[in-house]
Amino acid sequence: MQCEQVTPKSYPVNLIDKDWSERKLYFWSPAKSFPAMIHDMEVKEDDVWIVTNPKCGTTWMQELAWLLLNDCDFEAALSKDLELRSPFLEFDFMVNSDEQTALERVEELPSPRLIKSHLPLPLLPRQLWEKKAKVIYVFRNPKDAWVSGYYHGVTIGYNYGKTLEQFFDECLEQESDRRYIIEHAAEFYQLRNEPWFYYTSFERMKCNLRAVVEDLCKFLDKTVTEQQMERLLKHLSFEEMKKNPTTNHLWESTQIKLENGGKEVHNFVRKGKVNGYKDDLTPKQIEKADNFIAERLLLNQVTLEELLLVDKL
Ligand code: A3P
After folding, report:
1. Does Manganese show up as a keyword for this record (predicted)?
2. How far is the CA of 159 from the centre of ligand 1 (A)?
């Protein structure tokens, strides 16, 4: 997928003090005026936004947040694809490239809306920085996120015929949003103590999902009974989510019409491991990725342990 560099009309200077003019930001090409439309879109006070780098456990968190916002209505969750209950902000434009209709699904959603986005903070709606609707962020070790992204890309077509090594080199070397995975997270990490913001990691969800559910109940002002908690933990387990048709992006895959889509299929809820990258990458690739990540961490004055919330594991 081709990307182009974009410059937002304004930056979240009220939230983070940094030289934003140095921040490289990318959007799918042709971006047309869609980034500006997002910049100006209306955010509702009771919106809940889930923002992540791709493949960091977005779907997992979305299903959890949707259930909490909808009084643990498991039957409703099991009867409608998650991406129709909680739309992906950029998706429609990505597949149809039509600005007229791109935000319809999000705008028509009944409140409280649960909206997913992979956009970095400066490309999210300006009202989100000002109105401070609730935002949930999930980080994951970039090596696992990239490997997961490779297999997802093979399934939908854009990585079909490409080796994992080729894809990895693209992630580290090509100018696109993938190179800025650490910047994406580090900016949100700085907001972690804001009352309207909840920051967690895939690794923490794997380590103690109950604690994340409890955190999220507090954050969303919801309560669950012990019986509901037990059902939530089962419903959100890897095994259940893997076999649940509504959490495997089946509707979404019917919308993406890439030439090589569906020729080699990997389940969306695929492996669900922490450090699963060790089974896929060679020591040389791991070293290359580690050097790249270390460089970006240094530039952003944050450690991987901090971003992963290692002290909470
Ligand atoms: P893998 O490809 O490493 O298995 P996203 O929703 O952001 O695209 O993230 C997808 C990743 O989250 C996939 O990682 C998927 O398997 C994992 N995932 C989804 N639900 C999960 C669950 N209940 N438990 C563990 N991992 C889960």
Report:
1. no
2. 18
